[in-house]
Amino acid sequence: MSSRDGEPDVPEGTPGPDDDGAAEENAPSEVHDLPEVPGAGANAFDIEDARPPERRRRRRSKVTVVVAAALVMVMVVMVAVPTTRNGLLNLWCDVTGGVCPGEALPPITEDEEIDWRISVEPDEAALWGNYVSLGDSYSSGDGAGDYDPETAEPGECWRSENAYPNLIEQEFDFEGALGFYACSSHRGAQMLEQIGTPESQIERVTENTSLVTVGIGGNDLGFIPVLRTCIVRMPLLERGGCTAQDAEVEEKMDEFEEILTEVLTEIRDRAPDARVLVLGYPRLFPEEPPGMYYTLSNSDQLWLNTVAERFNDRIRDTAYRVDGEVYGSRQVGSVEYVNVFSSLTGHEVSADDAWLNGIVLGELGEGLKVDRASFHPTAEGQRSIAERVRLQIMEGPERVLYQSRDRLESVTPEKLTSELGGPLDPVHVEGEGEGDEEAADADSGPES
Q1: d(Cα 321, Cα 83) in Å, to the nearest integer?
Q2: Which fold has domain 117-444?
Q3: pLDDT confidence band for 68 (50 / 70 / 90)
Q4: Cα–Cα distance, 199 to 53 (Å, whole number)
Q5: How far is it, in rounded angstroms, from Cα 58 to Cα 263?
Q6: How far is Cα 347 from Cα 355, in angstroms, rounded to an integer?
Q7: What ranges do the domains of the chain cover?
């Protein structure tokens, strides 16, 4: 084997680790009986084999101690350094051989006659109860048309018949029904602030919820204002105005990881048996932009794509960490990430057949204002996102799913009906804060 394969180059016939017995039988009884190699001393590998067995055993003991000490140091480092997005959790699983979220954890152990959990297929785990949809305008369907009239007013939720939650509800036979509470302009921080109030999305999640989809974070990141800053500038005079926002964007990503962790914890506290599907965001511009898009240069478009991709990475890793805690502590339900980043490939804003609204200007007479539907999926885009969600429901996470035996045995149609709340409008009540006042002014620029 060559050194490139991780092993030193060794002459043929050299005894390997498993050849100790043969080496002892064939080795000369005295070191001075070894044949001499012209121009050199005795062969180093043969000298090792010629040593008395006691010395070889002592040497092996020393090697064992060194290896054990190294493993202890690895364990200390793993305990001292928190799990990060860079895969320390996976490294720990590989080093220790422990059970990780990607592996099956048997529901019954030797000292348990009956486990309180039962393993179920992915679709069964999603369909036994109500489906609750939470999130912002990418989940409410803003930009996709055919809005619920009660939600189609400035500052309201803009829920579309074409939104992926409605499409998922039509695709599957849920034992319960859809509670559609995703709302345009909502933020993850706002979802936490509104807990305990009639406007709360999270409070609509109940114990007999079997599926939750949540797409949130774009407004916490301020992605649309970031995009607006890139567009509303002089491209030749302010070339760095777009990418100069990177440090601020990264800081907001850091903050949102904590917010999302808390949102997912609150959801699981209310629906511990539910499969919680966390959606990312689609790429807005082509991987290879064909040219300028309004005032956005190719480099601006690529940077905005990387912002969405990095943000999705944060969302994915947060969902993975929470699910790791769920699985590792032998709980039921799951938290899963749905990758929709490439769901609009070939149909981005600059494409002839775009599934994403580009810049939509406000009505005439209002001045140069950008409509809230800008850079939001069309009905076709929502269908593509729905397909990613459908596949996740059918395929499930890369681990076994468990449900509470008592929950499945006690759920009834009456319970499911009683737990669905009413419409979640209006949501932008007076005095909620500067961020919501800006969101209520829908014509001043879109929030997702």
Answers
A1: 9
A2: Rossmann fold (3.40.50)
A3: low
A4: 78
A5: 57
A6: 5
A7: 3-80, 117-444
pLDDT at 43 over 50: no
CA distance 323 to 339: 16
Task: Give residue for tokens 């800008």.
Answer: 374
Structure tokens at 403: 């449900």
Give the Å distances, CA to CA, from 262 to 14, 179, 234, 324.
60, 21, 40, 15
Query: Quick one: what percent of the chain has pLDDT higher than 90?
Result: 58
Tell me, what's the pLDDT at 110?
52
Integer CA distances (angstroms), 157 to 184, 225, 276, 360, 395, in order: 5, 19, 22, 18, 31
DSSP lists the bridge partners of residue 179 as 132
Alpha carbon separation from 101 to 117, 204, 326 (Å, rounded): 17, 28, 9
Residue 1, amino acid: M
In 120-160, alpha helices (H)? 122-127, 137-140
Encoding tokens for residue 319? 């969902």
Give the CA diameter of the chain. 105
List strands edge to edge, sheet with 178-180.
Answer: 178-180, 130-135, 209-215, 275-279, 334-338
Q: Identify the burial level of 319 via C-beta atoms within 10 angstroms of its C-beta, where 0-12 means exposed, 13-18 middle and 19 or more buried.
A: buried
Q: How far apart are CA 144 and CA 375, in angstroms?
A: 11
Query: Which class for 344: exposed (0-12), middle (13-18), buried (19 or more C-beta within 10 A)?
Result: buried
Distance CA 377, CA 348 (A): 9
| CA angle centred on 393, ends 387 and 397, rounded to 5° | 120
Q: Which residues lie below 8 Å from residue 6, measured CB to CB, with a gap of 6+? A: none
For 168, other C-beta atoms within 10 Å of its C-beta total 23
For 15, the token pair is 């005894």
215 forms beta bridges with 135
User: Given a cut of 50, is residue 219 above it in pLDDT?
Assistant: yes
Backbone angles phi, psi at 275, to 5 degrees: -85, 120
- Secondary structure of residue 276 in the 3-state scheme: strand
Q: Which residue type, as a one-letter code, is found at position 147? A: Y
Amino acid at 329: S
Q: Give me the residues paired with residue 130 across strands.
A: 209
Strand partners, 296: 293
d(CA 292, CA 203): 44
- Residue positions counted in the chain: 448
**Using CA atoms, how far apart are residues 285 and 166, in angstroms rounded to an integer?**
26
